[in-house]
Amino acid sequence: MEKGYADRQSEWRKLWEEGVSILKDEGWATVGYTWVLAKWAATILSSRSFISSLLVEIISDDHPTGQWNLAPKADGPFPVLFPLIDILNHRPKAKVSWETGREFMGLVIGEELHSGDLVWNNYGPKSNEELLLGYGFCLPSNPFDQVAIKLNMPSNPNHSAIRNQQSSYINSIVSPNETPPDGYYYIRSPDHYTSGYENVSAELRAFPPSLIDNLSILVANDREMGLLQKRPNLHWPTLNGGRRNMLALICQLLQVLQRKYNEITWFDHLLPKDPTNDKQRNAKIYRDSQISIIRAAINPLMYKLRGAVEIGDHGEVIPQLVTLEKALKYLKSLDKVTYTSFRRGLKLALGTNDIRELREACWAEGVWTLWICTIRLWFLRQASAIRINSTVEAKEPLRTKLIDWIRFTDDLQYWSSDPLFDVTATESANDDEAAAELLSVVKSAAEADPSSVFAERIWDLTFIKRGNRIGMEEGLTLALQEQDTEVGEQYVLHLEKRKLQTNTLHG
């Protein structure tokens, strides 16, 4: 809102300065043409004018009286003032139409009126922000209200290439008025006259498809980027094996909405308890509506995210997103001996095995990598004895889920020197440094306890780097409110189902 007002005032001031300059060049006295007067005139024109297209049939270059001439078509429509008729107030969805002729301009009311009833005009489908900026008022329960989000996508050649590939497909299913100007996107509530956007899943109906598309590319990992590059028609986070992308997208949307919410409520402590004038009343209407739309957009996202953390989709025993605390519990259920050895090794090498303390000491991601490697090690030990069928799956769903996930990482050749997707774009020297630091932790634990799981010969720099790569690729940062989880925001691992068609990663 503040930026919109500043932009509009800047545009008006530029026009005023140019106009005064022209008048001076023509020898006019410009003392009375002040900025204050120019701003008043600009607000009158913007709030009371009609669009010239209403008169297109009677104002033309070949008008017989030669009184009015239309501006060149290249200039587009322009504002026209009609005193008296411009006093009509706005009501959304009011049934009105305009009739024009060479001698008159009339407003036709398409609904029954009685003596003493107000006659309403309809300014069009305008949000409260448009009404406040253009006319100085807002409407409670405005069915056309929405929240404007400004989002500048970072420059990335791979992202740009995918968006360019998708452009023709996107345009075929997205209406033109959903294409954002200058990086602005508009969030709608279920009460919006459109009930939200189409061509998206239920929890995402508040968001324009173009925003979902851009953010799903932004949060894509290397595996998902590989799929998108090979199959650009996989629009939004619906690609095969893309549940992680959907959840990462939801986390990103929640961050965007929370930031917008904070901007609106930042000065709450300075606001009067009750409005005392029209300006304050309209500001409150605008603010309350914006907050209501944001909350309505947040609720289904939080529901989806909680489901992924707590029980997963379709009643799964193991959630899609696993916290570090739960990961250790799963290791304990899988193999108590390995679990005990793992916890003892952390205590010996890092001085504590308390997850909260490790997280506060910035060891959480390192412990995640060690956990992934340890699960892999357990799998290799048991590989020859592992037999999964429907009976085993019913009796041991946790064991089945973890084995399925390890096989999923095998399908993608995460543990080989040649994974099925390009990881060079996100590799950095920090990966080597992090792996070297974790290797020193492993060696410390092995030296302190030669029988530890960390004393196995498989532990080397390459093994740790591959485990770290999985953690980076298959996890995401989870942002739940403090009361909904142990630590608020944390890194979690997504246990993808083993249904990925690996051949889609090849040319």
Please outline what is shown here:
This protein is mainly alpha-helical and 507 residues long. It has helices at 2-25, 35-48, 128-135, 157-173, 209-218, 222-230, 243-265, 278-310, 324-334, 336-350, 355-360, 364-382, 390-395, 397-411, 429-448, 461-474, and strands at 50-51, 79-80, 96-100, 105-109, 147-150, 184-187, 321-322, 475-479, 489-494.
Please tag this protein with its features.
507 residues, 16 helices
Helix content: 40-55%
Structural class by secondary-structure content: mainly alpha
Q: What would you report as the Rg, rounded to the nearest angstrom?
A: 31 Å
Succession of helices and strands: HHEEEEHEHEHHHHEHHHHHHHHEE
E-strand count: 9
Q: Which stretches are low in confidence, meaning pLDDT under 50 for 5 or more residues running?
A: 63-72, 168-179, 482-487, 500-507
Query: Mean pLDDT, nearest integer?
Result: 81
Strand line-up of the largest beta sheet: 7-9-8
Question: What is the rounded distance between the termini?
Answer: 47 Å
- Which descriptor suits the 3D outline? elongated
Please give the largest β-sheet.
Answer: 3 strands, antiparallel
Percentage of β-strand residues: 5-15%
Individual helix count: 16
